[in-house]
Amino acid sequence: MQIKVDHPSALGPIVRACRKSQRVRQDEAADSIGVSENFLGKVEKGGDSVNWGKLFQVLQGLGVHVILDVPADVARMLEQSSNADSTR
Quick one: how far is CA 68 from the chain centroid? Predict the structure, then answer.
């Protein structure tokens, strides 16, 4: 299922629901993912200043995939850049 996230406060409840659906306490999830319980709590509350690397670690640990829907011209630009990089 795809859910639009346009602000950190929208991401927090999603992370919390993913954890709860796995029937895992916050401290257990944090431990298994490799982050502090405090950090996971900040994410679940939708904190707007979290470490990106750790945030993606949490998302991956809970089985959440991040997919960006970019405009077609941006996708073409990225594809051209990728193709140019692969020919070097």
Answer: 11
Tell me which residue of 47, 64, 58 sits closest to 8, measured CA to CA. 47
Instruction: Indicate left, alpha or beta for 82 from its phi (over 0: left) and psi (-120 to 50: alpha).
Output: alpha
- The four Cα atoms 22, 26, 28, 29 give a dihedral, to 10 degrees, of 60
Domains and CATH numbers, the chain: 8-86 (1.10.260.40)
Is pTM beyond 0.90 here? no
pLDDT of 88 strictly over 80:
no
Dihedral angle over CA of 44, 46, 48, 54, nearest 10 = 30
- Report pLDDT digits (tens) over 4-60: 898 888 999 999 999 999 999 999 999 999 999 999 999 999 988 999 999 999 999
58/87 Cα distance (integer angstroms): 35
DSSP 45: T
